[in-house]
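Each field is set out as follows.
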Amino acid sequence: MKYAESYFTHENITWVPVSLEEILRVAGAVNLTKVEGLFSASNLQSRGKHSDDILMIGIEEVGEKLFLHFYPIEVKIGGLQTQKARVQIDQTARLFNQHLRHNGEDEFKKKFYRNFFAQLLLSNVKKLHSNGLWDDDTFNYVENLKSRFLNDGFEIGEHLEPHIGKGAVLTFRKEYPYRSSVKDGDLLLLTLLEEDAYLGITTSSEEIRRKMVEGRLDLIPENLLSHSYSSVLEEGASESKDESAELPFPPSDEDESDESEEVVEDTQNDESEKKEPENRVGDDGEDQAMDGEDGAEPPLAPAPDDVDEKVDLADIRVPIGTVRGSNANVYWEFGDKGLANRHMFTVGRSGQGKTYFIQCMLMELSKRGLSSIIIDYTDGYKKSQLEDEFKDYLGDSLEQFIVRAQKFPVNPFKRNMKMLDEDIHIPEDDSDVAERIKNVISSIYDSLGIQQLNAIYQAVIKGMQLYDEGMSLPRLGELLDEDGSGPAKTALSQMNLLIDKNPFDYQEEFDWSFLDKEKGKVFIIQLTGYSPDVQNMITEFILWDLWYYKLQHGSKNKPFPIVLDEMQRLDMSGDSPTSKILTEGRKFGWSGWFATQFMKGFASDHLSRLQNATQKIYFNPTENEVSNIASSFAHDTPSRKQWEEKLMNLSKGQCIVHGPAKGKDGELRGSIPVVVDITSLGERL
């Protein structure tokens, strides 16, 4: 109980811990264990003689009033099961209120119960003193109140509830890297590490308290009761809860309101509202598990003007934000060699902060000298839509290529080099080129049948024989027109817009080597001004060109991110470039950042590929997707329901991060879902 006592320490409140097992034992000794009474095992939710349930009784004097606070705590080690604990604590709090609080009913019985707890309290105070756990001053203070306790001269306090709720679940999580304290409705969720439970045995309460106050156990010091609660109460505060008390905790799922709209995007341009980064206190030479630091921060690369300084890939940890209710930072362990891949899959309804978040991630990698590509077929990454902090930081390192104005230097009919083995490459033949063109057009126009697609295939074969790499979309149109067959005419009628727009510069070849040469660059291929089908075609051919470039020049030790928003628009069939990026791309350096508003539109095999991304980010999703997402976090029904609630109540600028995380020992652990407040661009500068 050292952690609970340290968390709830207050200069005007003296806490006395009592085990619920002891309450049952003493009550049984005096024949108070009625089946429907306050002291039944079912009512107090005891699970036997080894129950971990604790009742904290707080003694507080305010003016001439004496308050007793009854605060049940459920202690858990290992997993996370708060739904049952919520019911238990709510019932326990209701029973204490029903049987101990004066309201004009059953007063004799209530006085009897109140006297029982007063004597139990005094008995435990003597034990604490005799065992050397309390000093003489604390013991004498409570002893001087003895007559008031035994003569029913106290009130049941409820005014702490806005600060710490009706009760707490103290969980020592197994294989979990984050500590946090979150007030969730009437329940305080206090999460520590399993290692803390063992280290707490040999660590003094004073040391634990000191670390909490200094913010070195990840817990936010302002959330401690000593910071959040002032005991100077208005007269009559005991009669009603202080509804105006400011909650220092992150708002609970039930308390979220439309005021949360005042978040990430809307606040970033107001300098007066920017939060300065926390100054974390180090803890050299002390136990790692008792320290909030996850090890030294990797050195940040300088701003783009100076970004030539080398940053080791293994040192790249991309900060995402802080755990809700904690100072603990959550990272994308981008450079860790233990990652299966460096892909990221982001899901969430429109307006929840996905684009803002991706800008944050791009800026972090730019700091570390990594260049990135955005293919923008949604208009979401036009310069006019980007955040000022993002543009100002990148400066000349942010480049936009507007295809509508310049045409993109890619030849879809180019004979790329196929890799047969790591050192064996051969050029594509005519059928390879024709198959690729046919598949891209098929993905754009799903109304085209086998005969129409075959006509396109044959026309490309003929064009390659006639023009070789001088083949083009206009020449494909001419060959289909010359064919004159019904399928060829139908195919041409579908493709006329693509052919007329002809968005490619066939004579030039784009130099993708800038990805390695230019450090910290963000290159936007802007497809605004084209219809969706033309945008999709351009995107697919650019991806193919880049895929073949990386086959020859890519390396898993030279990662580059590519942002593909609204993924449902792209081809994800087995032989598409997007599919290849997801399944084979890591060894060639691909870090695909895939985003979508919803997952329902994806075929099951396509969704499975996306779910293979090691880093998954979930913003507030559409209602019909909540259950599916929650089931990926937990398999048992109570935990799944809990995650469903968290998903539905995510605020703008909040997300659930589901990816590998490093423990306090620096070792990479499996994917762990955690609610995160995204760090703003302003705080990253």
Notes: The two ends are 41 Å apart (CA to CA).
